[in-house]
Design a protein that fits this description.
This protein has 525 residues and is mainly β. It has one domain (2-523). Strands 1, 31, 32, 33, 34 and 35 form a six-stranded antiparallel sheet that branches. Strands 11, 12, 13, 14 and 15 form a five-stranded antiparallel sheet that branches. Strands 5-4-2-36 form a four-stranded antiparallel sheet, with no helix packed on it. It is globular, with a radius of gyration of 23 Å.
């Protein structure tokens, strides 16, 4: 390890992302096939356990011991042993799925046809590749006894399938396929977001939203879950088409769901040919739905002609004005005014195109910008406000000090000042391959970048904030991120000072792990 990790950073960072997109020789025929989109790869977990003072009694320091202040970083990586993973490795053949992209041959042509469409429909019922996020539904155990008491966490994706992962050795304890019928068999939960949110007022409680398919049409449902139970507590009016959503906003009292102007018509053949994102139908409005999480009531369901496309919500806030009996809500998003990055021909990240060279990667649109969606629960008015300038540094995978925080320690009524995110075309570069991490100050007039990190051929992932328990300012703490160094062809854990994004430490793994998506930090208390 290079540098030094602050003594208060003790715990485990677990990351999740895809890492295998092809099968050996494409099966018996010997024809090479691969999934054409990064989102469809088979899930692989990485884990960094940071153990302060772990080096004592080892090494060749003075007297034969390491300095007692030495920090050990223990690294593990392992594929999730899903049924999909085991079947593909056994048969040496990819399975048709309705994913983000099609299966393509060596020339980049989509493998389509009647039988592949039929197989994809059947595989929907067996899908268990949870390759996007890591979540802990039992937060009470963390706060009571420390990380050692957590024996498992859950890997998630943009659908009900999950995988339970042992924290000590990354064993796959179990996987699940599609979720069962919802309460009363009113419908079937087709998708849910891969970004659940912890309750801001209660420990050990997680909320999420999903799309329920039933005889009366698609609905948005609000679910509540603990380590022992899960239930649907809210349901919208029927929708026209199944919407796409990847995240939502949660305050102490309300869940704010922004449905971007895209719906999935559930066409199997087009889904197999182009993937579910590029086969979506485009609408002329953005829909905003708000649930009261205490009653389950849908208290707002309105549309705006302003089109908002996005993957990630940043933060949510609520403001109560008793004098006029009005509640104002807002959710901040990393958003786009056009669907190019989400559904366009050169959207993020089609592997077959990316592998053709820099020219093709440079066609990928720049990342998102700040967008604030506002709601007045009394008048039912909704608004959309874009922040920053058109030339501002684009970003994705945003996080704040309060992201993934549970209970009353999480911000409830106001938005945080600082947002941390990764971005391509870094610092004004015209090259997509230029990646960096950025700190934004939302109290500046232009919501601009106030600190950044970038290094030649270093590819960064989502930053995770670990607060300094003795800090007095919002940005007192560190950022943890997994990087891939293209020059060294090696993956490492990078520790940055959250105040100025200077590098505090780098822990090299001796391994190569692809870009991951999301993860969680589990402190040792």
């Amino acid at each position: 390890m290079e540098g030094k990790i602050p003594s208060y950073v003790k715990g485990t960072l677990m990351r999740n992302g895809p890492a295998l997109w092809s099968a050996d020789n494409g099966g018996k025929s010997g024809e090479k096939e691969m999934y054409d989109h990064i989102f469809d790869g088979l899930a692989k977990i990485t884990s960094y356990e940071i153990d302060q003072n772990s080096g004592e009694g080892e090494g060749e320091g003075e007297g034969g011991d390491l300095d007692p202040s030495e920090t050990g970083v223990h690294f593990q990586t392992r594929f999730i042993q899903s049924n999909s993973y085991k079947k593909i490795l056994k048969e040496k053949k990819l399975h048709p799925i309705i994913g983000v992209g099609p299966i393509v041959d060596e020339a980049g042509n989509a493998k389509i046809g009647f039988w592949r469409t039929l197989q994809a429909a059947m595989n929907m019922l067996q899908f268990d590749n949870a390759c996007v996020n890591i979540w802990n539904y039992n937060t009470a155990a963390v706060k009571k006894s420390g990380f050692s008491s957590i024996d498992k966490v859950v890997a998630l994706t943009d659908a009900p399938p999950r995988a339970e992962i042992a924290t000590n050795n990354l064993d796959t304890i179990s996987t699940s396929t599609a979720a069962p019928f919802t309460e009363g068999k009113q419908g079937y939960e087709m998708v849910c977001t891969t970004h659940p949110e912890y309750s801001k007022t209660h420990e050990n409680t997680t909320y999420n939203v999903g799309v329920e398919i039933g005889l009366s049409g698609p609905h948005i449902i609000l679910t509540k879950e603990t380590n022992t139970s899960r239930s649907v507590i809210g349901r919208s009016e029927p929708l026209h088409g199944a919407p796409y959503m990847h995240s939502f906003g949660l305050t102490g009292r309300y869940a704010i769901v922004v449905l971007q102007p895209l719906v999935n018509s559930l066409g199997l053949s087009e889904g197999v040919k182009s993937g579910f994102l590029r086969s979506m139908e485009h609408l002329e409005f953005t829909r905003i739905i708000v649930f009261d999480i205490e009653t389950g009531e849908c208290v707002l369901d309105e549309t705006t002609e302003e089109k908002v496309f996005f993957y990630h919500a940043i933060s949510a806030a609520e403001e109560r004005h008793d004098e006029n009996d009005t509640t104002y809500l807002s959710v901040r998003l990393c958003a786009y005014k056009t669907p190019a990055l989400v559904t366009g021909e050169d959207h993020f990240m089609r592997l077959n195109k990316c592998q053709k060279g820099k020219e093709f990667r440079n066609r990928i649109p720049k990342a998102g910008k700040f967008c604030e969606v506002t709601c007045n629960l009394k008048t039912k008015a909704v608004g959309v406000n874009w922040k920053g300038t058109e030339s501002a540094q684009g970003f994705e995978l945003p996080t704040t000090r309060y992201s993934k925080a549970s209970g009353k320690s999480a911000l409830i009524s106001t938005h945080p000042q600082y947002v941390y995110a990764s971005g391509t075309y870094a610092d004004g570069s015209d090259e997509y391959d230029s990646w960096g991490l950025f700190k934004y100050d939302t109290e500046q007039e232009d919501w601009g970048v106030v600190a950044s990190y970038s290094s030649d051929s270093v590819y960064v992932s989502e930053p995770i904030f670990v607060p300094d328990p003795n800090g007095e300012q919002e940005d007192d703490g560190v950022l943890l991120t997994q990087i891939f160094d293209g020059k060294k062809s090696e993956t490492a854990l990078l520790v940055l000072d959250a105040t100025d994004l200077s590098v505090l430490a780098t822990a090299w793994t001796g391994q190569r792990s692809p870009m991951d998506f999301h993860g969680s930090w589990f402190p040792s208390l």
